[in-house]
Amino acid sequence: MNNIKVAADKSKANKRTWKPKDFLEKGVWKPFLIAIALMYFFQFTAINIVLMFTPDIFKMSDPQSKFIDEFLATILVGIALLVSNIITLLLADKMRRRLMLIFSAFGISVSLFGIGAFLHLISLEKLACCTSVNITIQNCTDESSTRSVFFNSEDCPKIHTENIQWLPLLMLMLYIFFFNLGYGALIWITVVEILPQHVRTVATSFAVSQTCISSFLVSYTYIDLKSLITPRGVFWLYGILNVLGLLFILIFVPETKGKTEAEIQQYFNKVSNPKRPGKG
Questions:
Q1: In CA terms, which of 6, 54, 138, 177 is 20 to 30 Å from 98?
Q2: Does residue 36 register a pLDDT over 70?
Q3: Which among 74, 108, 134 is positioned nearest to 240, based on CA atoms?
Q4: CA 245 to CA 38: how far, in whole Å?
């Protein structure tokens, strides 16, 4: 009992409280900025768009619901979410966290580019159909509308997407899987582990608070972006942002699994203070 008390008193004595000037230290500000950037890249995966506007995405991909009803497709995406959570739990203790984040960013990028490409093919079909029935270019290029002559016409053949109607559903299910593989499950752990313990509470709180700002921006701007750069442009935009997130992880984010706090801080101090060659 005395040994436990002595150890507790020693731990309390060694505990360091944070001060504002701590964020000027090289071993603090770098992981702090990385943590904030990761929180923004987390929201730039467009997860809020996918979860909040899933029926809208399927409606744009299959306006007449010939392949699958948008609400049934949404249920299937939800099932993929559940299955991916289970798979992630099984893999989390076996794979390196940085590697899982890399796979996650790569898979999300491919999925978003794939959805954008499919919507681009839909727009080409719409353009061809509008041209054939002499609809004005202005109405023809209104891709955000689901009530145009194009969508109600049976005379518009699917010249590009007839054999790949399953692609949006597959892309969204893959998107959910790759999101949960890294960003959805491990981003929070990584942010906590890269921060020094004495600033961890306040730094983590500030970094996580940025998700509220970025989440609002992503969700609020979706409708306006659809009108401004077309639906396919929205998914391509977030696909590009996820490529940047992938590069960011590759360059700046260290592996934290199995590492002590001292080893992680040594990494940041080494990066911040590269050894200079000695003078000859």
A1: 54
A2: yes
A3: 108
A4: 8
Is residue 48 within 8 Å of 141, Cβ to Cβ? no
pLDDT digits 0-9 by tens, 160-196? 666 777 888 888 889 998 998 888 878 888 888 888 8
CB within 8 Å of 198: residues ≥ 6 apart: 15, 16, 17, 18, 22
For residue 22, the model assigns a pLDDT of 57
Q: Counting beta carbons within 10 angstroms of the beta carbon of residue 207, is it exposed (0 to 12), middle (13 to 18) or buried (19 or more)?
A: buried
pLDDT band at 21; cut points 50, 70, 90 = low
107 within 8 A of 178, measured Cβ to Cβ: yes
Contact, 250 vs 8, CB < 8 A?
no
pLDDT at 152 over 50: no
Distance CA 169, CA 70 (A): 10
Q: What is the spatial distance between Cα 55 and Cα 133, in angstroms, rounded to a whole number?
A: 29
Tell me what pLDDT residue 132 has.
Answer: 61
Amino acid identity at 65: S
**pLDDT of 278 over the 70 cut:** no
Rg of the Cα trace of the chain? Answer: 24
Q: What is the DSSP letter of 147?
A: S
Provide the terminal-to-terminal Cα distance of the chain, rounded to the nearest Å: 58
